[in-house]
Amino acid sequence: MGLVLSGFIVLMNCKTWKRNRYLRTGDKIVTSLCLSRWIFQGLYGIHHIMQWHLPRVFFHGYANEACVLGRIILNYITVWLASLLCVYYCVKITNYKHVVFLYLKAKMSKLVPWYIGLSVFLSVVFSLPYGWLVFFTSDYTGKITESFQNTTKKKREGPYVYFIGSTPPFIIFTVAFFLTVPSLWRHIRNMSSVGSSFRNPDMQAHYNAIKSMAAFFALHILFIMSINITFSGVMEIGIPYNSVSFVLSSFYPFLHSAVIIFYNRKLKEEFLKLFTCYRIFSQEKK
């Protein structure tokens, strides 16, 4: 389902861009994030299937290591873009008067394409240590990986490689979150103090923003923990754990994509139309 929802968001935003030749700043970040998640989940699914159903082919040479490296790069990209999205919400929603916030508010639309490119560049850079461990270290060069357990041993020799790379975007994400939510809460309290009703559209919008950010933050923590455990190899790898890791890794992009669709009026309307057409088609087919 994560693949479906991420693909739906990408297609809808591409449709908007084709029609208007323009995407809003937030939609650019969301589209890039959902596209990277879509590719990551597709590669993760292929990796998950092949390592259990075609092990003789997949674990010969460096095919498995190359696939894992691709997953790490794509996952770094999704983590950096998720942090960029949280920073965008922070800059857009909050009303801090610091010079950095004022500069970002004025230049965000021009800076976002550069930030997206920088996210990809940093993702590749932080993935280089793993690539060096696997492809260029003398302990690994010339070896043939015959089983998933051998790959796990390789990952255990550098258990902190992925953790170090995922820490900077997570810190940025956390700081942006804790700057945004208190600001929203103070604004809600100010509105309620002047007599605004909880049914006021502005109040509801702020409450929805807080709920969306809180869900985003909780799911992001769960995802970071799951992926760090997976890539570090600190737990024994087997079919039960691998399946749980796969489910948890898919759970976050699915739910966050659902949150994005739910709180975006246009995406929600298009999704309901598509879902209605699917139900009618299913009933007619029966």
Model description:
It is built from 10 helices and no strands. The longest helix has 37 residues. It has a single domain, classed as Up-down Bundle (Rhopdopsin 7-helix transmembrane proteins), CATH 1.20.1070.10. With 286 residues, it is mainly α. Helix 5 runs antiparallel to helix 7 and helix 8 packs antiparallel against helix 9.
Concise structural overview:
The protein has 286 residues and is mainly α. The protein has helices at 2-20, 25-53, 55-58, 63-93, 99-135, 148-156, 161-193, 201-232, 239-262, 265-285.
Topology:
Blueprint: H1 2-20, H2 25-53, H3 55-58, H4 63-93, H5 99-135, H6 148-156, H7 161-193, H8 201-232, H9 239-262, H10 265-285
Helix pairs in contact: 1-2, 1-9, 2-4, 2-5, 2-9, 4-5, 4-7, 4-8, 5-7, 7-8, 8-9
Key terms for this structure?
286 residues; Rhopdopsin 7-helix transmembrane proteins; 10 helices; globular
CATH class placement? Mainly Alpha
What is the string of SSEs from the N terminus onward?
Answer: HHHHHHHHHH
Unreliable parts: 138-158
Distance between the termini: 23 Å
CATH evolutionary superfamily? Rhodopsin 7-helix transmembrane proteins
Q: Count structural domains.
A: 1
Give helix % range: over 70%
Number of strands: 0
What is the count of helical runs?
A: 10
- In the CATH hierarchy, the third-tier topology is known as Rhopdopsin 7-helix transmembrane proteins
Sheet with the most strands, sense and barrel status: none
The proportion of residues in beta strands is under 5%
The CATH architecture can be given as Up-down Bundle
